[in-house]
Amino acid sequence: MVRPANFGFNLQTAVTNFYQKEDERTASEIGVLAQMEFDNQVAMLRDQGVKVIVEEDTLNPFKPDAIFANNWFSTHPDGRVILYPMHSENRRLERRSDLIRQLIDKGYQVNDIIDLSFFEEDGQYLESTGSMVMDHCAKIIYACISERTHKIPLKYLANLIGYQIISFGAAQEIGGVMKPIYHTNVMMHIGTDLAVVCLDSITKASEKQAVQKALTQVGKKVIPITAKQKLHFAGNMLELSNDGNEKFTVMSQTALDALNVGQVQVIEKYTTIISPSIPTIEKIGGGSVRCMMAEIFLPHP
User: Fold this and answer.
1) In this prediction, what percent of the chain has a pLDDT beyond 90?
2) Contact, 197 vs 224, CB < 8 A?
3) N or C: which terminus of the chain has fewer CB atoms within 10 Å of its end residue's CB?
4) pLDDT of residue 301
């Protein structure tokens, strides 16, 4: 997780992210609140024994979305680190080789760094685990195609790591207009036993059926959420575990409040819920708790 230095409203990403909302508070006030929310989330994870590596954002260059560390890299059990092509120019500044070096310094094994940012030259983007929701057990990538998620780099990545692709179109009505959902991880979550997904947002019936069939075939308990729940970040979750192999589903308090009793009971049957409150980050940044966490799958002695 990257602790923000200049968190704020990003004009470049607001073109495709309809969750973002401008705020009248000063940049200083917003920055302090974002850091408090960040620190609280880290504390809640650590209280449950989840190992969290916190790295500090740098003041320069200016990176208003640095807190959303899951978008520019991914790590893999074979020691590979993959860097991704980013849609917004100011988000490309978030790719930091020094953070990868710090993982190595902490004892993580990095065998290869694969940089896919060359796709940016052709206007092709794939923003890591924002663009993709991966079922690592079944080796399946789920991805809704958008201005930030293109098929060519998606296929390249899938071939690279040996995963199957299930892609689809997903949209939501905003101000009376249907707009593409910019990241898959705002409408879909996959854990060991559970899948939380806004099936209603998948525009083609055949693609909706394909997603549902794929999830059930690998034994996931599917929890459908509504478009309204999705707008409250109910699809933006991540399953984590601690050294005791206890499983946790991390979602924001906003997301938890949007779920009904039955949905919560099903999640709690399989995992313990951790629900940090991050209203400032959600409103201004347009992302939630899952977007703030980049999983580390690298070998560690």
Assistant:
1) 89
2) yes
3) C
4) 74
Return the pLDDT at 58. Answer: 95
Listed in sequence order, the residues at least 6 apart from 108 whose beta carbon sits closer than 8 Å to its beta carbon are: 75, 296, 298, 299, 300
Q: Give mean pLDDT, residues 30-38.
A: 96
Domains of the chain by range and CATH? 2-292 (3.75.10.10)
Listed in order, strand segments (DSSP E) in 87-204 are 112-115, 133-135, 140-144, 164-168, 171-174, 177-180, 188-190, 194-197
Cα–Cα distances (Å) from 20 to 12, 126, 230, 284, in that order, read 11, 20, 14, 5
CB 296 within 8 A of CB 103: yes
- What tokens were used for 145? 């195609």
Beta strands across the sheet bearing 272-274: 238-241, 247-250, 272-274
Q: How far apart are the first and last CA of the chain?
A: 21
What digits encode the pLDDT tens for the residues 243-260?
999 999 999 999 999 999
pLDDT in tens, 94-149: 999 999 999 999 999 999 999 999 999 999 999 999 999 999 999 999 999 999 99
Mapping DSSP onto H, E and C, the string for 205-258 reads HHHHHHHHHHHHHCCCEEEECCHHHHHCCCCCCEEEECCCCCEEEECCHHHHHH
For residue 224, what are the β-bridge partners?
Answer: 197
Residue 111's SS3 state is coil
The helix/strand/coil state of 95 is: coil
Of 205, 200, 210, 203, residue with least CA distance to 231: 200
Q: Which residues pair with 115 in a beta bridge?
A: 83
